[in-house]
Write a structure and sequence with these properties.
Layout (H helix, E strand, L loop, with lengths): L2 E3 L4 E4 L3 E7 L3 E7 L11 E2 L11 E5 L5 E6 L9 E7 L12 E5 L5 E6 L8 E10 L2 E11 L2 H8 L28 H4 L10 H9 L11 H4 L4 H17 L25 E6 L2 E5 L5 E10 L4 E5 L11 E3 L5 E8 L5 E6 L3 E7 L5 E2 L5 E4 L2 E5 L4 E7 L4 E8 L13 E7 L2 E7 L4 E8 L2 E7 L32
Parallel strand pairs: 1-10, 21-23
Antiparallel strand pairs: 2-12, 3-7, 3-9, 4-5, 4-8, 6-7, 8-11, 9-10, 11-12, 13-20, 14-19, 15-18, 15-20, 16-17, 16-19, 22-29, 23-28, 24-27, 24-29, 25-26, 25-28
Length: 483
C-alpha cells in the first residue's frame, strides 16, 4: 500500500532498482552527493543534457505527460555516494505555480512504495523535493521540500556544483563594482527550510572579486550555464543583499553561448516514452534529420526495433537481440514532417529516448565502458581506437565522416570498419574528426579507448564542423562536464 509522507517524514525503501516519478512538468535533475552533501564533480549531476550517471545507477527519462522518471538502482550506487537528491526547478514563475508537484517511488514490481506531494511551495524557483539516503545498511526516502528563493544559484553553491572553465569570450558581461561586506543574514532571508553552510575565506572573498551581470539578479539555468563558480557566488551574494534591503531583482541579459560547443544534426530537447511489451511508438514535433534512439528493456526474450514509414512499412532493423535486459543507442532518421514512428517488440517493460547527435558519448584516451550498440563521437585528429569486445555474437562498427558535411538533415555515407563474430580485441585507425563511430551491433559489454591521438590539421576547428542552434550537449548541469 502506498504510504503518503508529509514534509520531513522518511521511510525505508528496498535496496533495489526503484523508479521515482516526478510530476508537474518542471525541470528535474538528480545530484549524487557525499556525506558532506556535496557532489564530487560535474559527473554527479544527472539532468536532461546528461541523463545517465557514469556508474549507470541513476538515470532520467521524460514521459509525454509531463512526468520525469528517475531510475535509481540503489544496489549499484557507489559507496562514496551517501544521498541521491531529487531536484526540480522552473525558469518561469515560481514553484507555487506548479500544480501537483510530487515524487512517487515505485518498486521493482511497479507498485508504489512511498510518495510525497509538495503542498507548501512558494516563491522558490528551485527545490530539493526528496532524497534517497543510506541508513542502517539500507536506504530510506525522505520528503525534503527544501526550496530556494535564489533558485539554482543558491542550490548549486550549497551542493558544491562548480561551473568549470570560463568561456573564452563573454563580451556581454560587465564587471560589477566591489560590494561592502554582507551583514549576517537569517535563514529566512536566503531560502526556505535550507540550512546555511559556512563559507570558507576564499568563498567569502569571491563576490567582491568576481564578474557578474551588470544588472538583474534572477538567472535562468541557461544563463548559469555560461558563468564561472565565482560569478555564481557573486550573484548569490547580490541576491541576498537585494532581499535584505528590499530592492527589486530584474532579469539580466542572457550571456552569449559558449563558442566551443560542437553541434551536428538537429538540436532539440530529448524526448521519451515508456511502456510494456510490444508497441508502436510515435514521437512528434522533432526537427528532421539524424537522431539517436536510446532503448532500455527489462526482461528476457527477443527485442526488436524498426522504423516505420508513412505507409506503416517496417524499415531496416535497428535492433535485433535475444539478450536479457537489453540496452543501447542506435541511429535513426526523422522524416521532414517531424514524426518519428517506431515498431518495438519487447519482452517486458521498456523506455525509449530520442536524443540529438550532440548527446553522443565522446571517445577519449580514457577508458570508456558500455554495453550494447552505441553512437560515439571522435573530434580529435587522426588516432587509433582499441575495442575490447566480450560477446559471442557479432560486433559491427561503421564510421561516418562529418568533416565538411554541411547538411544537418542527413548523414554521410557509412564506411564499414568491423564485422566480426566473438570476443576480440580490435584496433582501428580513425581519420581526422569530427567522426561518428557507430557500434550498430554489440550484444555484450565492451570498452573503447583512443591512443596515438594527433593534432588536427591546420586551418580547421575540430569542434565546429557545422553551426547550429545553441546546445548544451554533454555539459554539466551548470557547466559543460569535463570529458
Amino acid at each position: 500500500m502506498m504510504r503518503g509522507l508529509v514534509k520531513g517524514d522518511n521511510a525505508f525503501v528496498p535496496t533495489a532498482a526503484l523508479r521515482v516519478a516526478v510530476r508537474s512538468g518542471v525541470d528535474v535533475a538528480a545530484l549524487l552527493v557525499t556525506e558532506r552533501g556535496r557532489v564530487r564533480g560535474d559527473a554527479d549531476i544527472v539532468f536532461d543534457g546528461a541523463p545517465e550517471h557514469a556508474s549507470g545507477a541513476v538515470r532520467l527519462a521524460e514521459d509525454g505527460d509531463g512526468t520525469v522518471w528517475l531510475d535509481a538502482d540503489l544496489a549499484g550506487v557507489e559507496e562514496s555516494v551517501d544521498r541521491v537528491l531529487v531536484v526540480v526547478s522552473t525558469e518561469e514563475g515560481a514553484l507555487r505555480d506548479a500544480r501537483g508537484l510530487s515524487a512517487e517511488v515505485l518498486g521493482p514490481d511497479g507498485a508504489t512504495v512511498v510518495a510525497y506531494e509538495v503542498t507548501d511551495a512558494g516563491a522558490e524557483t528551485a527545490m530539493v523535493v526528496a532524497e534517497l539516503y543510506r541508513r542502517s545498511g539500507g536506504w530510506k526516502f525522505r520528503a525534503v521540500g527544501q526550496g530556494y528563493v535564489d533558485g539554482l544559484t543558491g542550490l548549486a553553491v550549497d551542493h558544491g556544483v562548480e561551473a568549470g572553465e570560463e568561456p573564452q569570450e563573454v563580451p556581454d558581461r560587465i564587471p560589477a563594482p566591489a560590494a561592502p561586506a554582507d551583514p549576517p543574514l537569517t535563514e529566512a532571508q536566503t531560502r526556505t527550510e535550507a540550512p546555511t553552510q559556512a563559507e570558507t575565506p576564499a568563498q567569502a572573498e569571491a563576490p567582491a572579486q568576481a564578474e557578474a551581470p551588470a544588472q538583474g539578479l534572477r538567472l535562468t539555468r541557461d544563463q548559469l550555464l555560461n558563468m564561472t563558480e565565482a560569478e555564481i557566488r557573486a550573484v548569490a551574494a547580490a541576491q541576498r543583499r537585494a532581499k535584505a534591503e528590499g530592492g527589486p531583482a530584474s532579469a539580466p541579459p542572457a550571456p552569449r553561448p559558449d563558442p566551443s560547443v560542437w553541434t551536428c544534426g538537429p538540436v532539440f530537447k530529448p524526448r521519451g516514452a515508456s511502456g510494456r511489451n510490444n508497441d508502436v511508438i510515435t514521437v512528434k514535433g522533432l526537427p528532421p534529420g539524424p537522431v539517436m534512439v536510446e532503448l532500455t528493456v527489462k526482461g528476457e526474450g527477443y527485442t526488436g526495433l524498426w522504423p516505420l514509414d508513412d505507409a506503416n512499412t517496417k524499415g531496416r532493423s535497428l535492433v535485433s537481440s535475444t539478450e536479457k535486459n537489453f540496452r543501447g543507442r542506435v541511429l535513426a532518421s526523422v522524416p521532414e514532417h517531424g514524426r518519428l514512428r517506431l515498431r518495438l517488440e519487447a519482452p517486458g517493460s521498456w523506455q525509449v529516448r530520442v536524443l540529438p547527435l550532440a548527446e553522443a558519448r565522446r571517445l577519449s584516451e580514457s577508458r570508456l565502458e558500455s554495453w550494447g550498440p552505441e553512437v560515439l563521437l571522435h573530434t580529435g585528429g587522426t588516432a587509433d581506437v582499441t575495442f575490447h569486445y566480450q560477446g559471442d555474437g557479432n560486433l559491427i562498427v561503421h564510421l561516418y565522416r562529418l568533416a565538411g558535411h554541411t547538411d544537418p538533415t542527413t548523414l554521410p555515407r557509412p564506411e564499414g570498419a568491423v564485422n566480426e563474430i566473438g570476443a576480440r580485441k580490435e584496433t582501428l585507425p580513425l581519420p581526422e574528426g569530427p567522426l561518428l563511430v557507430y557500434l550498430s551491433v554489440a550484444d555484450a559489454p565492451w570498452t573503447a579507448r583512443l591512443k596515438d591521438v594527433r593534432p588536427h590539421s591546420a586551418g580547421r576547428n575540430p569542434d565546429s564542423p557545422m553551426r547550429g542552434p545553441e546546445h548544451r550537449g554533454a555539459r554539466g548541469w551548470l557547466r559543460r562536464a569535463k570529458s
